[in-house]
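Now read this:
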Amino acid sequence: MTELFNRALSVGLLLLVAVVAVFSVQSQTSVADGRVTSCPAVSNTPFFTIVYGSVTFNGTAAVPGMVVEARSPRGDVVGCFVVASAGNYGAMYVYGEDTTVSPPVPGMRAGETAAFYVSGNSAAAAPSLAWNNDQDVHQIDLSASGATPTPTSTPTVTPTPGITPTPEYWVYLPAVLK
């Protein structure tokens, strides 16, 4: 009986890990103003600081789905966050350069000022962020302006008369073996 319980527990944990992985991937992508927006890949390093704050776009609260990026003076994206709550972003990790590995991982260097962007538009940061590997939290409020993203139309699908789709449902249950 204990073996059966352990097997069921293992399968349950595997399913939980799969569900968490799916939601983790989905959290990096969202929809804003009719178009898909997401963060580019950001290389994590053991060197970082954390930022959060308010974010406005064209004088109003940034809408959910807008992308906030931190970039190094060399143009590397060193932090990214998809706005989930109107007018707020973060906690966003801003990563430092890691030269202890080969090839080195690009990132911020001590004392450099991070540049911020909101959906691709340069943002004013108050106060500015002089990056240090302090692994602390900093409030940095952002304000950007630019062209308002144009929603894209979604094509409509007209069903073919006479064909009725039959939905299929699959349920996966753990197998119990003796």
